[in-house]
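Q: How would the structure tokens look for this protein?
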Amino acid sequence: MECVSGVLLNTIFYSVGEVKRHAKKTLAKNTLNMNTELTVAQEQQLNEYTYRLAQLYKDKIDEAGRVASGELKNFESYFVLGEEHFRIYFNLQEYWKWVENGRSPGKQPPSSSIEHWIEVKHLVPNPVDNKIPSTKQLAFMIARKIGREGYEGKHPLENAMKSDAATTIINEIKQVLINKIKDEFHEILVG
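A: Here is the predicted structure in token form.
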């Protein structure tokens, strides 16, 4: 499994500083040392938003037609609030990047991964010179073609995170954090 975080996906990475600046615009100028502990309700909201972002990605994988075993759609997602930023992590299968970005011509990919894909898809090869290639032979031929020609990525993650629905969810996440900061300012002011 490979972890993809907001660091890689600028569309879902926002600094807490950005949220603080917004809160400071709406409240009196004051120094804020943000408490990173969330209430149960805030944590539930943020986990729900994270789940919804993950579901957007899963839907885009379906739309891209890149579902063989379903392993790519079976991942954990979680929200982490730090001192200076928040991140949303998707713990994805290692091959997510090939589905996302494709592969340029050049080096041939390993046949073993393609063999697994052939088995999962239940592909039956067409005869070549009146002989049906084995799974291993078919995997080698596919790998060789990918090495020669490459293939285009389908960008399901990028498409999901650039969608209007993702923008709405991200704004909802920001609002939860802004409200948290406003509550902390209120506590500072009231004492």
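The helical segments are 16-26, 40-64, 96-101, 111-121, 135-149, 156-161, 164-190.

The chain has two domains: 2-102+153-190, 105-149.

Upvote if useful.
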